[in-house]
UniProtKB/TrEMBL annotation:
The gene is lpdA. GO terms for biological process: 2-oxoglutarate metabolic process. Belongs to the class-I pyridine nucleotide-disulfide oxidoreductase family. It is found in: Cytoplasm. The keyword Oxidoreductase applies. This is Dihydrolipoyl dehydrogenase.
Length: 479
């Protein structure tokens, strides 16, 4: 087989494998390079997301939530379940089974669409040549008319808490615990820290989350963030804001952590410490000096709005480029690039990318926050509706949180859609679709929603934008 392709994709995560499949569907001869191997040294497709990220973490979140509900929530509903126990080994086995099924599924999709998988570490050379080093150290060079870089990201390590793989771990290590730690520390109250902290708290760990910033989830709408924080604290998560970590030392199988907060120097002891302070682009040994691709000082690859780099015929998508580090954003960019290579002109709408925290309650949002709109001097109207007044949420024993819709005061166009509560990750899609179609709040208010459903809260929040909610008292408008 010739070593010349129309498209070579470096990386088989959600950006890369999706780009490769789309390119092949568009009639382009496509190869996808992946270096990931499992503990047994077998090649694995799917990148961080499928192997040690989105998918395994959601499996643990689902299982731990069911355990939590069976242990504490069933009795209120008349279900007597005594002595509910957790088998951590079985839970991990199930998580691995799901991961294996999905990563193997990508191999099947490559076969069905005619994508050639190439296993090894890909390095971009000049003139769109890609050098691949396999696990035995052998190198082979391929060339392409177009190269798509989709190498993703990896956890950031901080000097005060270097990973040791056993007591101080990253997000990957936190998915591999063989028993529930008695006391668990989490550095970082971002999405990953909150999700992993939630899993182990539900299973019985005493969890402390240390966050350097003074504001909880500062980038999201603060009404939603405050509601979420209240719920997490009720669940027993000890979230300490404004806590700047100064050191972590393992002594006698315990992690001794020192940090500074408003009260001064503090100390804490944990059985395990998860460092979840963010991720950085994975660009190690990726580019030769003459590749023509430019990076910024943080390792992100420079691209334009269509994900083109400064080197002709070279594109980059996902976590290695600007924008949110989200699997679905990477996939959308991958599809856009494949389509553009094939001569079409699609564009990713970066204003309509949803964000989700998969805790319980879930937190999800798309578009602008009230804080952003105030800072921009925009006039807006707000409609909110609590799940406490939603019959379906009550019936499901999940009546916490709210839906919040923000609309332009003059045009009524929806500018932001925010949810904290049950199935927020699914409900936010209604906001994404509405915003993608340029919907007004009135459009949603005039839409018929099934009863009883959680989605009726969207309907009521939309009605509330104009002060016309039915199932809750409306705020009097200021004259």
């Amino acid at each position: 087989m010739s070593d010349k392709y129309d498209v070579i994709v470096i990386g088989a995560g959600p950006g890369g494998y999706v780009a490769a499949i789309k390119a092949a569907q568009l009639g382009l001869k496509t190869a996808c390079i992946e270096s990931w191997t499992d503990k047994e040294g077998k090649n694995r497709l799917g990148g961080t997301c499928l192997n040690v990220g989105c998918i395994p973490s959601k499996a643990l979140l689902e299982i731990s939530h069911k355990y939590e509900e069976a242990s504490h929530g069933f009795a209120d509903q008349g279900i007597i379940a005594k002595d509910v126990k957790m088998d951590i080994g079985k839970m991990m086995e199930r998580k691995e089974g799901i991961v294996n099924q999905l990563t193997g599924g990508i191999g099947g999709l490559f076969k069905a669409n005619g994508v050639t998988p190439i296993y090894g570490h890909g390095k971009l050379m000049a003139n769109r040549k890609v050098e691949v080093t396999d696990k035995d150290g052998k190198t082979k060079t391929y060339e392409a008319d177009n190269v798509i870089i989709a190498t993703g990201s990896k956890p950031i390590q901080i000097p005060p808490a270097p990973f040791d793989g056993e007591h101080i771990v990253d997000s990957e290590g936190a998915l591999e615990f063989t028993e529930v730690p008695k006391r668990l520390g989490v550095i970082g109250a971002g999405i990953i820290g909150l999700e992993l902290g939630s899993v182990w708290a539900r299973l019985g760990a005493e969890v402390t989350v240390l966050e350097a910033v003074d504001t909880f989830l500062p980038t999201i709408d603060q009404q939603i963030a405050k509601d979420a924080l209240k719920q997490f604290q009720k669940q027993g998560l000890n979230i300490v804001l404004g806590a700047r970590m100064t050191g972590a030392e393992v002594k006698r199988k315990l992690v001794n952590v020192t940090y500074e907060d408003a009260k001064g120097k503090q100390e804490a002891k944990f059985d395990k410490l998860i460092v979840a302070v963010g991720r950085r682009p994975y660009t190690d040994n990726l580019l030769s000096e003459d590749s023509g691709v430019q990076m910024d000082e943080r390792g992100f690859i420079f691209v334009d709005d269509t994900c083109k780099t400064e080197a002709p015929g070279v594109w980059a998508v996902g976590d290695v480029v600007r924008g949110p580090m989200l699997a679905h954003k990477a996939s959308e960019e991958g599809v856009m690039v494949a389509e553009r290579i094939a001569g079409h002109k699609p564009q990713v709408n970066y204003d309509c990318i949803p964000n989700v925290v998969y805790t319980f309650p879930e937190v999800a949002w798309v578009g602008k926050t009230e804080e952003q709109l105030k800072a921009e001097g925009e006039e807006y109207n707000v409609g909110t509706f609590p799940f406490a007044a939603n019959g379906r949420a009550m019936a499901a024993n999940s009546a916490t949180g709210m839906v919040k819709i923000i609309a332009d005061a003059k045009t009524d166009r929806i500018l932001g859609f925010h949810v904290v509560g049950p199935q927020a990750s699914e409900i936010v899609a209604q906001g994404v679709i509405a915003m993608e179609f340029g919907s007004s709040a009135e459009d949603l208010a005039l839409t018929c929603f099934a009863h009883p459903t959680l989605s009726e809260s969207v309907h009521e929040a939309a009605l509330g934008v104009a002060g016309g909610a039915i199932h809750i008292a409306n705020r009097k408008k200021k004259k």
